[in-house]
Amino acid sequence: MTQSKPPIKPHDWQGKFLCAFRGLRVGSRGQSSFFVHLPMSCFVLAAAAQLRVTTIEWCVLVLCITGVLSTELMNAALESMARAITDEFHPEIRDALDIAAAAVLVAAIGAVVIGTLILGFRLGVYLGWWELPAYGAY
User: Fold this and answer.
1) How far apart are alpha carbons 1 and 4 in whole angstroms?
2) CA separation for the pair 89, 86 (Å, rounded)
3) Does any domain span residue 7?
4) pLDDT digit string, tens, across residues 23-59
5) Is-contact 68 37, C-beta < 8 A?
6) What are phi and psi of 12, to 5 degrees?
7) Which residues of 27-66 are buried (b: 16+ CB within 10 A; e: fewer)?
8) DSSP 12
9) Domain contains 51
10) pTM for the full model?
11) Parent domain of 85
């Protein structure tokens, strides 16, 4: 049996970006949770555009979205590593995977709360339920 050489770690920026984009493709492929988060992110961005959120609110929403997607990718990386290590059951591996899944859950719940606060407020203003406070009050 011939062993292949391990891939050479890229030292230039182009190689690093190619590896990162490959990781994005591999990490998102086959991840059902990722394909729930991605459409929801598009919905949030479309709603934010329609409701004319402020620049700060845009920053917070985009930060929440990238936080959730990043934790989802880290969870996928741990799942992939666990599959590479063994196919057998190990309580420690199960615990690590459960902790990673919990990190995604915490990030998603935080993003939902923040998104609801920002978009809910903007929706109320849009529908005329309340007035927009004076500049600087929010």
Assistant:
1) 10
2) 8
3) no
4) 888 888 877 888 899 899 999 999 999 999 999 999 9
5) yes
6) -100, 165
7) bbeebebbeebbebbeebeebbeebebeeebeebbeebbe
8) S
9) yes
10) 0.84
11) 37-123
